[in-house]
Amino acid sequence: MNLDLTPDELAFQAEVRAWLRANVPAEPLPSMDTAEGWTLHQDWEAKLAAERYSVVSWPREVGGREASLVEWVIFEEEYYRAGAPGRVSQNGIFLLAPIIFDHGTPEQQARFLPSMATGEKIWAQAWSEPEAGSDLASLRSTATRDEARAGWVLNGQKTWSSRATYAHWGFGLFRSDPDSAKHAGLTYFLFPLDARGVTVRPIAQLDGEAGFAEIFFDDVFVPDADVLGAPGDGWRVAMSTAGNERGLSLRSPGRFCAAADRLVELWKDRGSEHPEAWTGVVDAWIAAQAYRLFTWGTVTRLADGGEMGAAGSINKVFWSELDIALHETGLDLLGADAELLDTPWMDGYVFALSGPIYAGTNEIQRNIIAERILGLPREPKGAQR
Amino acid sequence: MKFELTDEQVGFGSALTALMRSGDSVAVARTWASGDMTPGLALWSRLADQGVTALVASEEEGGLGGTLVDLAVAFEVLGHELAVGPWIESAALAPQVEGELVTAAVPGISQYAADAQVARLLSGAPGATHASIDTTRTLTVVNGAAECDAVAVDRAVLACSAELLGAGERVLADSVAYVKQRKQFGREIGSYQAIKHQLADVRIALDFARPLVFGAALGEVPVSAAKVCVSDAAYLAARTGLQVHGAIGYTAEFDLSLWLNRIRALVVAWGTPAYHRGRVLTHLTSTALVG
Question: In chain B, whose CA is at the least distance from the CA of A280?
Fold first, then answer.
């Protein structure tokens, strides 16, 4: 058992650190959920991509460096420690790209991955519907076969679609077999958000910014070339995304270690004004360290050929609750300034509040942990529609 | 970078588990609590023969020269199987190559000497002996206890942390087994979300305490961070375990009580969580941050 990095890994770490030190904007960028901030975040993605830092773990031919899992964790640690901007391309590169690598055709990989890597095309997820949230498989948006045009016609409504206000493309599940129920008969589609029949309506979030949106589909045509995986196989295809979102890739330990270190710095600055917050500082730092070490255990297991599986749910509950606790403690240390709207701690706090809800609520995660890891009996199904 | 136990370490843990189960360690613990130490001392000898007390003593001193990770592996098993006797003192604080039972009070962190009725006191003179909430332990006042080397104390804290990890895992496993067979309102209580979510939270807490215990063994984090986190996790396991068992869990007769009281004792032994939070704060404010 050891946590030592190899000379190559140490060299990679030094290179990343030096580049970030020279290139990370001195001032934080405006929120990516504003028109101005959106453009600046896209520019930042292009700058990362020019040095192959936007998708370090991807193959070289689609913009990556073929970094190992260990190097990916190193990159993320350095990235967040450097205070670099949030990743506007996150939904695409972390949630959709793994699916395109696993289930996409070579043509789809060549068409979609490079522009995702450069940030030229930003992707929005379109999972939830007004009546299909935690119970995602009950979704009702339809895909109707159009044999003449060799494609599908989408109708319905998606909601809580992160980044959809400004994004270029969307991905999501539609019911392609009207006689099917639940998980069967769903198909995974990719679609441009400026396609004829698509209407995007921004939704103001808790802090007033339009970080997510509703998407309405009114006879939207999608060619066969933009179906991901086989028609009817969408649930299986999509669930590999869910595992990624919940698990390792969405929330790297670097985020929380960097935030915990900033919390300790805040404590050193203002702790004497609010000494009662000290246990929160200590507990947040300990939890961030636990997350860092837990991740190294996960990386070891994955490198040995293991799978994330239901363990991703354990990860997700922990990081989402840690993120809130960390920022609550930061706000505690600000005293009356904790009410101010535009502070990094408030921004982080408001963002953290969504963590226990998205990517599968923490209640769904606890069900998964109880049933698939602890082996407790499944709950009897409620009355079926 | 390989943050997992070696096959040898896994094998060592399994061998200790098998030895303790074949020695009926839970029955031994009950006998010990009733005042008859004979079976407990016999089991102690068998474990000492496997090298538990000599594990981290250097080879020059006649020990096994094992690592702190090895020590944590052993103490997780001792917690899981409810070992009795002053193991923390005899295998971690002051490793005994001959398997002797020793105990100590350490000023500032461990006010009482555990199990002094069966162990040689390393320093000072014994005073009054008190009962512990854990009936398998006794607590003896020590007059004139000597200061102790900080490295040795940290080793004891690590051992205590690993023992808590094992005890917490045991309570979770027994609780999961119980809620799968206990039926109310016509179905297993483990099928209700009210039960599932509590036990899922215990699984999460223990899964994140474990890497801190082994990370502390590697020197990645202060051992106090591990003690804080694993105390919280094991205590959550104990509280939840008691709750999902209901009244049967509240009885002395049911074996669960042995672990509940062991956890309560170890949470405060070798420094309370508040004490160790204070040590972590000192670490954070006095050192450059890493990690």
Answer: B277
> Which tokens go with B68?
């702190």
Q: Is A112 contained in some domain? A: no
A207, A234, A261: which is the final residue of a domain? A234
Specify whether A209 is located in the same domain as A255. Answer: no
Q: Which residues of A touch B192 (CB under 8 A)?
A: 379
pLDDT > 50? residue B110: yes
* pLDDT (tens digit per residue) in B228-285: 999 999 999 999 999 999 999 999 999 999 999 999 999 999 999 999 999 999 999 9
Classify residue A354: in a domain, yes or no. yes
Q: What is the pLDDT of residue A385?
A: 39
Burial of A382 (0-12, 13-18, 19+ CB in 10 A): exposed
The residues near B274 (Cβ < 8 Å, ≥ 6 apart) are none
Domain segments of chain B as ranges: 152-286
What is the 8-class DSSP label of residue A370? Answer: I
Active-site entry in A27, A245, A276, A363? A245
The answer, yes or no, to whether residue B290 has pLDDT greater than 80, is no
Using one digit for the tens of pLDDT, what is the confidence trace for A208-257? 888 899 999 999 999 999 999 999 999 999 887 555 555 555 578 888 99
ipTM value for the complex:
0.96
d(CA B264, CA B244): 18
Q: Are residues A269 and A223 in the same domain?
A: no
pLDDT digits (tens, 9 = 90+) for A151-160: 999 999 999 9
Give the mean pLDDT of A357-362: 91
The phi, psi pair for A198, rounded to 5°, reads -95, 130
- Cβ contact B211:A298 at 8 Å: no
Chain B residues in contact with A378 (beta carbon < 8 A): 191
- Based on the domain organization, do A307 and A215 belong to the same domain? no
Instruction: List the CATH number of the domain containing A151.
Output: 2.40.110.10
Return mean pLDDT, chain B. 97
The confidence band for A359, taking pLDDT boundaries of 50, 70 and 90, is confident
In percent, how much of chain A has pLDDT > 90?
83
DSSP letters for B140-183: EEEETPPP--HHHHHHHHHHHHHHHHHHHHHHHHHHHHHHHH-E
Residue A363 domain-assigned? yes
What is the token pair recorded at A38?
A: 């959106």
Task: Specify the CATH number of the domain B152-286.
Answer: 1.20.140.10
Question: Is A245 among the catalytic positions?
Answer: yes
- Residue-level pLDDT at B291: 41
Facing residue for A293 by CB, picked from B3, B203, B281: B3
Contact state of B229 with A287 under an 8 Å Cβ cutoff:
yes
Tokens of A202: 């921004």
> Domain check: are A171 and A226 in the same one?
yes
* DSSP 8-class letter at A227: E
The SS3 call for residue B234 is: helix
Domain that holds residue A324: 247-373
Total domains in the fold of chain A: 3
Identify the closest residue of chain B to A288 by CA–CA distance: B291
Among candidate residues A88, A110, A141, the one where a domain is terminated: A88
Residues A225 and A255 in one domain: no
> Cα angle vertex A113, ends A110, A115, to 5°?
105
- Measured between beta carbons, the chain B residues lying within 8 angstroms of A6 are 1
Interface check for A3 against chain B (CB to CB < 8 A): the answer is: yes
Is residue A269 located within the same domain as residue A156?
no
**Is A381 contained in some domain?**
no
Query: Is residue A252 located within the same domain as residue A358?
Result: yes
What is the least distance, in Å, from the CA of B196 to any CA of chain A?
5
Same domain, A168 and A194: yes
